[in-house]
Structure formats: structure tokens, C-alpha cells
Design a protein that fits this description.
The chain is mainly alpha-helical and about 325 residues long. The protein is built from 13 helices and 2 strands.
Length: about 325
């Protein structure tokens, strides 16, 4: 007597797609109609330089000798990736990005916490905090170069007084790589911390006060409220702040260009692209470096979005 065996194991369930109502569908269509033309124009304006740079990167092309333009394929990329100058610029860029973004995150969160807690005078405090971000980056870089200068800077003078004469008044901050990078990072942190605090303040303001009060009543300490209530609910804001600042910091150009000019191994990737394209008019090599920089920035953005796993669309409320 044969027995039929029936597989009663549950089948894998697929996530059901949300069914849009007629009103939601109409609003989505209206949104595409309103934003579609601007989106297409911005896409064309953005894509054309990228495609053109990608095309030029396949040629050995010097602007002063356009007749010798020669197709070389990926040779420019091979040359760039095998050059120690590129890897040194990448290391400097990554170091500046890591230091500035981490410090700005901590300081920005502290400023956001203060601005969110202070009631009077809240608007005045926020205006004062945002003043450094309103200054043009080149102007800020010149001010910091003056501050760290050997002959006219006040940083050496202050340190000399604070250390009771132990600090050398004629210490050259830009004479070596480490102090030069420290000065660059200080100028970048001072300039862009307000931007980080503004983004974090928006996330901090969205946290329900009743939730914090309930955690406090339940006996949660300040640290527990911070790590288990505040930071998890600020995850979208933190992701946006880190993403924006990391991408911006990785493309840093103004501060090191004004303060050191790339001397003493302080050249960043953006400065390397500028030197190849503008100073040496090597359009092919400069375009290849620009494409590499764009690819790295795109990869950083993808890692942030995938690593944080934040549904920004779902958190728009």
C-alpha cells in the first residue's frame, strides 16, 4: 500500500507590494510631471561633463599640442594608479576626510544638543553658530593661513604664552606634513561644523519629548537615553549629515590650496586633478584622475546608503 507524501512546508513569502490608492497614484503622476522637466535638464547638464571626461580620459591629449591627440585606451588609468603621487594624494585626502568628519560629528552633535535645549535666546544662538559656515571658504582659508603663519600668526604667540615660554614662537606649521595637515583640518572643522550641527539639529528636533520622559521615568540613565532612544531615532539625520560631509570633505580643494599649495605632501586628489588639467594642461590624464575621483565618491555614497540601511522615504514625516 503506497502512501502519498504531501509537502506541507510553508512556501517562501514574497513581500507584498503596497497598493497605491487613486489619490496617491495621481499625486505621484503630478509630481513626475512637475519635477520631470527639471530632472531631465539637470541630468543632461550633469551627465554631459561626466561622459565627456570619460571620453577624454581615453586619449593622450595635451592642450598646448592638440595635433598630437592619440587614443591610448586605459593607459592613463594604469599610469595614474601606478604613480606613488596618486596614492599619496589619496592617503592625504582620506586622512583629512576621516579626521574632520569624526570631529565635526561629535562637535556638531554637541552644538545641536545645546541649540535644541536653549530656549532664550534660541535664534541668536543659532545665528552665531552658523556664522563660520557663511564665510567664503577661500576667505576662511586665508584667515587660517595668517593665524598659523610664522611671522604674523597669533597661534604661536598664544601657545608660547600658554606654555610659559616653552613653545617656539617661530614654529613653522607649514614646514612639515603633520602640522600642516593639522592646520588644514582645524580650518575645515571650524568652517563646516555648523553645517553638521544644523543637519543634526533637524534630526534632534524630531524626537518625541514624551519618549524621553518615559525612558527617564523608567530609570534610564543619560547614557542609556542617548544610545537607546536619541541616536536610533536620529539615524536618518546622522546618515544624511555624514554622507554630505564625507562627500564634501573628500573633494576638499580650497583650504589646502590656499594654506600650503600642496607642499610637504599635503596635496589632495582634487589638487592633483587641478595640477594635471590646469597647470600642466594634460587633459587626458586630468580627465582620468577626475573619473577616478568621481568613482571613489560614488562608491562612498553607495557604502553609506547600504551600510546605514535607512529608509529616508519612510522617515520623511
Amino acid at each position: 500500500m503506497s502512501t502519498a507524501i504531501t509537502d506541507t512546508a510553508p512556501t517562501s513569502r514574497r513581500r507584498a507590494r503596497p497598493v497605491l490608492s487613486d489619490r496617491a497614484r495621481a499625486e505621484r503622476n503630478l509630481g513626475w510631471k512637475l519635477a520631470g522637466p527639471a530632472f531631465v535638464i539637470m541630468l543632461l547638464v550633469t551627465m554631459w561633463p561626466i561622459v565627456n571626461a570619460l571620453w577624454l580620459s581615453l586619449f593622450r591629449y595635451r592642450l598646448t599640442d592638440p595635433g598630437s591627440k592619440e587614443f591610448v585606451g586605459i593607459d592613463n588609468y594604469v599610469t595614474a594608479l601606478s604613480d606613488p603621487v596618486f596614492w599619496e594624494a589619496l592617503k592625504v585626502t582620506a586622512l583629512i576626510t576621516l579626521v574632520t568628519v569624526v570631529v565635526e560629528l561629535v562637535l556638531g552633535f554637541a552644538l545641536a544638543w545645546i541649540m535644541n535645549a536653549v530656549v532664550i535666546p534660541r535664534r541668536t544662538l543659532r545665528t552665531v553658530v552658523l556664522l563660520p559656515y557663511a564665510i567664503i571658504t577661500v576667505v576662511s582659508a586665508f584667515a587660517w593661513r595668517y593665524a598659523f603663519a610664522v611671522d604674523t600668526g597669533f597661534v604661536n604667540h598664544w601657545l608660547h604664552n600658554l606654555t610659559l615660554g616653552r613653545w617656539d614662537r617661530e614654529f613653522d606649521w607649514f614646514g612639515e606634513q603633520t602640522p600642516a595637515l593639522f592646520a588644514i583640518c582645524m580650518s575645515e572643522i571650524w568652517k563646516t561644523t555648523p553645517f553638521m550641527s544644523l543637519l543634526l539639529l533637524a534630526g534632534l528636533a524630531q524626537i518625541d519629548g514624551a519618549m524621553l520622559e518615559a525612558a527617564k521615568v523608567d530609570g534610564a540613565s543619560w547614557w542609556q537615553r542617548l544610545t537607546r532612544v536619541i541616536l536610533p531615532n536620529m539615524k536618518p539625520a546622522i546618515m544624511v549629515a555624514l554622507l554630505f560631509r564625507t562627500l564634501d570633505a573628500f573633494r576638499i580643494f580650497d583650504n589646502p590650496y590656499v594654506m600650503t599649495g600642496g607642499a610637504n605632501q599635503t596635496q589632495t586628489l582634487s589638487m592633483l586633478v587641478n595640477n594635471q588639467t590646469i597647470n600642466r594642461v594634460e587633459i587626458g590624464m586630468g580627465s582620468a584622475l577626475a573619473v577616478i575621483l568621481f568613482t571613489i565618491v560614488l562608491g562612498i555614497a553607495a557604502l553609506f546608503v547600504k551600510g546605514f540601511r535607512v529608509d529616508l522615504a519612510g522617515g520623511r514625516k
